[in-house]
Design goal:
- The protein folds into three domains: about 170 residues, FAD/NAD(P)-binding domain (3-Layer(bba) Sandwich), CATH 3.50.50.60; about 100 residues, FAD/NAD(P)-binding domain (3-Layer(bba) Sandwich); about 90 residues, no CATH class.
- The mean pLDDT is about 90.
- A hairpin with a 2-residue loop joins strand 12 and strand 13.
- It is globular.
- The relative contact order is 0.16.
- The chain has about 400 residues and is of the alpha/beta class.
- The longest helix has 21 residues.
- The strands form six sheets. A five-stranded parallel beta sheet has the order 3-2-1-7-21, covered by helices on one side. The chain has a five-stranded parallel beta sheet with strand order 8-19-9-10-15, with no helix packed on it. The chain has a four-stranded mixed beta sheet with strand order 6-5-4-20, with no helix packed on it.
- The structure holds flavin-adenine dinucleotide (FAD).
Length: about 400
């Protein structure tokens, strides 16, 4: 029997880990990774906006098979992470298994060959083609397609406008009047990074966020030396960080203990917000929703679960609250009514003029695997199956019933 071949889609951190596992843990080399970008790194290649960085300690946000003693600080910036991803791919000789600027359009399970027919488009030549594989693995990540919002009159605006994930580096924002729409993690990183260079920023934010303190310190030479030369020192630090971060997850759990913990974390966040942000914003900054609220599971009424709908990902503050003290920054706690040629009219009818509008509107997080269309046994469409089941479901988050030899990372 011939050995199976594998197709992986996506060369972000997940695709790189998968490639390393196949090649160096399993000794298996008959695999190809197809990536729509022009190189590796996924999120860290796509997102190049000012201030982009990790909000998880980078010693933890590293490949277990390639710890890096050279991280410059506790929470590293995007370019340093991307460089690490590139270096990892070269160190483990994974690049020759990768093809770039190729987008996967979808895949069909072929009942006759018992293989996957995977459809691709070469983004340079626009040529579409099919490759077959015994095993088909999706490593496309959850947030690689920006959420493109449509506001009335948007097409009329004559200035510059781009999404944070498509930052236009040819545009010089120095001394310009900037609007930032949104106040999620990307906005919280962009605003402090540009506030001192622009003439003004007006930030539109419809609802509040939980901001948490997260200082970021450069590693000293002694620490770097220790990471490099003291055996297992970095692994020990990583274990500590893992346990600390894992403990944060319990904030979202049901039960009395978690409720008490949640209240403590919320209280701490409130006090942090009050200590950093100007008083005039205190009311609009503190959320009126909990970090997570308990509810009963409709399929298993005896079980308490945590309902995160209406709640948001908490923000580990990258100096955003401090930036709110800058005199050229104004936070407008309202949405957008419409755009016109010169600017934005907000929901309250206030008109502001801008040179550049930054859309910090996030990503298409609800539409798993899109725009890929995956058809399994009986030509079942994956997204249709999930819709009928009431949401995305996979065994161990990886394998889906009726989709043989298909895995989701
Ligand atoms: C701005 C930003 C900051 C973040 N910060 C953190 C953080 O601090 N800590 C943290 O834990 N997480 C963070 N994340 C989440 C981050 O996405 C994950 O940590 C990590 O990158 C996921 O890796 P991945 O390989 O699964 O997905 P990705 O990094 O998204 O990589 C997926 C790859 O698949 C490719 N792809 C997608 N669809 C196709 C297709 N149809 N055909 C071909 N290729 C395709 C994409 O181009 C991409 O290169 C952040 C995300 C963003 C956007």
């Amino acid at each position: 029997m011939s050995s199976p071949n594998v197709i992986v889609i996506g060369a972000g951190p997940s695709g790189i880990s998968m490639a390393h596992t196949m090649k160096h843990k399993l000794g298996f080399t008959d695999f190809t990774i197809y990536e729509k970008l022009d190189g590796v790194g996924g999120t860290w290649r796509t997102n190049t906006y000012p201030g982009v960085g990790c909000d998880v300690p980078t010693i933890l946000y590293s490949f277990a098979f390639n710890l890096n003693p050279n991280w410059s600080k506790e929470l590293c910036d995007g370019p340093e992470i991307l460089e690490y991803m590139e270096a990892t791919v070269d160190k483990f000789d994974l690049r020759k298994h990768m093809e770039f600027s190729i987008e996967c359009l979808g895949a069909n399970w072929n009942e006759e060959t018992k293989k996957w027919d995977v459809r691709f488009k070469d983004l340079k030549t626009k040529i579409e083609f099919v490759r077959c594989a015994a095993v088909f693995i999706s490593a496309v990540g959850g947030i690689s397609y920006p959420r493109d919002v449509k506001f009335p009159g948007m097409e009329k605006f004559k200035g510059a406008m781009f999404h944070t994930a498509r930052w236009d580096h040819s545009y010089d924002y120095e001394g310009k009047r900037m609007a930032v729409i949104g106040n999620g993690c990307s906005a919280a990183q962009v605003v402090p990074a540009v506030v001192k260079d622009v003439a003004s920023i007006k930030q539109y934010a419809r609802s509040a966020q939980w901001y948490h303190e997260r200082p970021n310190r450069n590693f000293s030479k002694a620490e770097t030396w220790a990471f490099r030369y003291i055996p297992l020192w970095e692994r020990w630090k990583r274990l500590q960080l893992f346990l600390e971060n894992d403990d944060l997850v319990t904030t979202y759990m049901p039960g009395a203990e978690a409720t008490t913990k949640r209240a403590k974390v919320e209280d701490h966040a409130k006090r942090y917000i009050f200590s950093r942000a100007p008083k005039k914003y205190h009311n609009v900054l503190v959320p009126n929703f909990p970090l997570g609220k308990e509810c009963t599971n409709s399929q298993a009424p005896a079980l308490l679960t945590i309902d995160l709908s209406g709640c948001k990902r908490r923000i580990f503050d990258p100096n955003y609250l401090d930036a709110l003290n800058e005199p050229n920054l104004e936070l407008l706690p309202e949405g957008i009514q419409e755009f016109d040629e010169t600017g934005i009219v907000s929901e309250s009818g206030r008109k502001e003029e801008f040179d550049v509008i930054v859309l910090a509107t996030g990503f298409q997080v609800q539409r798993f695997l899109t725009p890929m269309e995956v058809f399994g046994k009986g030509k079942n469409r994956l997204n249709q199956q999930w819709k009928e089941q009431g949401g995305a479901q996979a065994y161990m988050g990886t394998f889906v019933h009726g989709f043989p030899n298909f895995a989701i990372l």
